[in-house]
Structures are given as structure tokens and as C-alpha cells.
Specification:
The chain is an alpha/beta fold. It folds into two domains: 111 residues, no CATH class; 237 residues, Alpha-Beta Complex (Spore Coat Polysaccharide Biosynthesis Protein SpsA, Chain A). 50% of the residues lie in helices and 13% in strands. Strand 11 and strand 12 form a beta hairpin. Helix 1 crosses helix 10. It is globular. It starts with a helix and ends with a strand.
Length: 383
């Protein structure tokens, strides 16, 4: 009976991950056509104690190959107590003016007006209220933007009828096993993101590369209804926009739109990050997203359960090995397709060890999420 149940779970896992893998190739690559720039963007970047990361972000902003008259950058200070603000001011050679407001051409610093349990949602909402343009793009302070980032969004908007655009994000860091483990995990999420769009079942996105019309944000009442959850400024809004008009929510599959961020530095930070991500899953309204989350959890839990099953002769070693091989194989295929798009195929050399470790890590995070609060930017949040 137990063996049959385990087989069924792994086969369902195989089906779902197989569908997402198939979906990756169904999303067409978008290529720039050298169209004249038309779209005006408000780029919103919340930050809190990011003095270490801001110089790289600001340098990448300064090299964007897009007319300055067509975009503004709104940096939202979420109660930083390091040198973040002075770092920005120094970079742009501008001193803070009155009313907590700094402006240099198309760059602004504003203070976050926190009104809920979600500082980041409040920061984005504060920026949208003072934004000048109809298209909003959010990213994070620890990111690096590619040169043709806005050009790619602009041409996509000109050629596609869109209200919301989800775009790619990846990790880049030192070549340690810890970083490779994180990057492989992140690539699986990115692969699932693309695959979801490919099978017309989009369910996740990343707020580090996320665009939408201001009017669409306002029409769904922004983050209203989700402000009790600290994170989720991306996925909960995606759910609303999909409900509003799913046909106008697209994925921008272009290497020129890939934003790069960094993996966390230590295991404790990784646990806190994953707990924060896990805090959103129980509040998904998208049934497909909930189903995926449960299938992935049970798939990993089943892999761990195979160990005592074999030890206590509840199933044979042959069956357990076959099921583990099936899971590792379909996960590898998803990662292969994802890593090929992001040009990170060399990470697959670490896949076997990472793939064996991952079920332990995933179940550990799921277990902690039931009992433990999490920290984010020196603040503690409860589920």
C-alpha cells in the first residue's frame, strides 16, 4: 500500500515537472528589432541598508541604453540606518534637499510611508503614487540591470498587447558549492516560471524584474488584501492581474532582459530567505500554484521517506532507486532547459550532489515554516 502511494506521488511529480519543462520551449525568444523607443517607464527600487550593493546597481542604471527623457528612477528608502542614502547622493553628486526628497534629472529618493505589515509593498505603493509614467517596473537594490533592459521591455510592449510583463532573473556569485546550490534552486524556479507561461498556467514571478501598467495596478486596488503578508509584492499582484485579464500577462523571454542578483552569504540567511518565500505559499489564491507547491513538497518528502522504507523492508531498494532516479532525471531536464537559456550550463556539474541534498533542505524549510517566524532586513515577521 505504501509503495503504491509513493509510486503515485512520484508519477504525479513527473507529470507536473514534465509539463513545466515542456512549457519552457513553448515560450518564444524575443529579439530586439531596433525600434524607436516610445514607452515611458517609472523604475521603482525599494532599499533598506543596501550601501554595499547600491554602487553596482547605480552603475548599471547609469549605463542603460535608453533615452533619459523616457524613464525615471524612484529609489524608496525603507528606514535605512546605514549609508545607503548618502551612497546614492554621492553617486549622483547631489545633496539631499528639503522634504526628504532628492532629485537629479530623472532620479529621485523618497521616504517609505509604511502603513502595513509589508514594508516593501508600502514602498512600491508610495513610489507609484508619485510616479510620472504609466508603465511601472520594479527591481531590487542588490540587482544589476543589463544595458538594453528598458529597450527590450519597450519593444515588447510595442509589439504585444500587455498589461503585465514577467521577466527573467538569475544569480551570479563566487563559484562555491553553496552558491551553486542556491543558483540551481533559483534556476528551477525560473524554469517553472517560464514553463508556467508556456502551458498557459502562469503562477509565479519575481519582483526583481516585474512590469505592469499603473492603471492596471490601480484597477485591482494594488496590494489591498495582501498587506498582512510581508513578502509577495510580486506573486499576489500577478494573481490579481491574471484574474483581471490573463491574455495580457506575458513572459519576456530575452537574454537582454535578464537581471542579475546575488545569492545569500551563509546558511542562516538562506534559511531566512526561504522561510520568507514559503510564507506566501499558504496564501496563494491560484489553485494551480497551490497544487504545484503541494506536489513539490510531497515529491521531496517522498524521497526522504524512501530511506526508512528500504531500511524497514517496506519497499525494495530497486523500487526506491528507480523512483529516485525518475525524480532526479525530470528535475535535471527542467534545470538543463533553464540553465541553457541563462547560459549557466556549467552549474549542472554540481547537480547530482545538489539534487540529493535538496529534498532534505526543502523538507527542513517546510517543517520550520510551521513553527518559526523569519527575519527580513533586520525585522522579524510572523506567518
Amino acid at each position: 500500500m505504501l509503495t503504491t502511494l509513493v509510486i503515485i506521488i512520484i508519477l504525479i511529480y513527473l507529470l507536473i515537472i514534465g509539463l513545466l519543462t515542456y512549457g519552457i520551449d513553448r515560450v518564444k525568444h524575443f529579439k530586439l528589432q531596433d525600434l524607436s523607443a516610445k514607452t515611458k517607464f517609472s523604475v521603482i527600487i525599494p532599499f533598506r541598508n543596501e550601501a554595499e550593493n547600491l554602487p553596482n546597481l547605480l552603475a548599471s542604471i547609469s549605463t542603460l541604453n535608453y533615452p533619459k527623457s523616457l524613464f525615471e528612477v524612484i529609489l524608496v528608502d525603507d528606514e535605512s540606518h546605514d549609508s545607503s542614502v548618502s551612497t546614492i547622493e554621492k553617486f549622483f553628486g547631489e545633496k539631499s534637499s528639503q522634504n526628504n526628497f532628492t532629485q537629479l534629472d530623472n532620479y529621485r529618493i523618497i521616504k517609505n510611508k509604511r502603513t502595513s505589515n509589508s514594508p516593501k509593498k508600502a514602498a512600491i505603493s508610495s513610489a507609484i503614487k508619485v510616479s510620472k509614467y504609466n508603465w511601472i517596473i520594479t527591481t531590487d537594490a542588490d540587482c544589476i540591470l543589463p544595458k538594453y533592459w528598458l529597450n527590450t521591455f519597450d519593444e515588447f510592449i510595442q509589439t504585444k498587447s500587455s498589461n503585465c510583463i514577467v521577466a527573467p532573473v538569475t544569480y551570479s556569485g563566487e563559484n562555491s558549492f553553496f552558491n551553486r546550490f542556491q543558483t540551481l534552486d533559483f534556476l528551477s524556479l525560473q524554469g517553472a516560471t517560464i514553463g508556467g507561461f508556456g502551458i498557459h498556467k502562469p503562477f509565479i514571478c519575481n519582483g526583481a524584474n516585474f512590469a505592469y501598467r499603473k492603471i492596471s495596478f490601480q484597477n485591482v486596488n494594488g496590494f489591498e488584501g495582501n498587506t498582512n503578508v510581508a513578502s509577495g509584492d510580486d506573486i499576489f499582484l500577478l494573481e490579481k492581474l491574471l484574474k483581471q485579464d490573463a491574455k495580457k500577462v506575458h513572459y519576456l523571454k530575452s537574454k537582454k532582459a535578464v537581471i542579475t542578483t546575488k545569492p545569500v552569504k551563509d546558511f542562516s540567511s538562506l534559511v531566512q530567505q526561504r522561510l520568507r518565500w514559503a510564507s506566501k505559499t499558504s496564501r496563494y489564491k491560484n489553485a494551480f500554484a497551490k497544487g504545484i507547491g503541494l506536489i513539490v513538497l510531497f515529491g521531496n518528502l517522498t524521497c526522504l521517506a524512501l530511506i526508512p522504507f528500504v531500511l524497514f523492508n517496506l519497499t525494495s531498494l530497486r523500487i526506491a532507486s528507480t523512483l529516485m532516479f525518475i525524480k532526479l532525471s525530470i528535475d535535471f531536464l527542467l534545470l538543463f532547459k533553464s540553465s541553457r537559456f541563462f547560459k549557466q550550463e556549467t552549474l549542472l556539474l554540481s547537480y547530482i550532489f545538489s539534487g540529493i541534498l535538496y529534498p532534505f533542505f526543502a523538507v527542513y524549510i517546510a517543517f520550520l515554516s510551521v513553527f518559526k517566524s523569519y527575519k527580513w532586513k533586520d525585522r522579524t515577521f510572523k506567518y
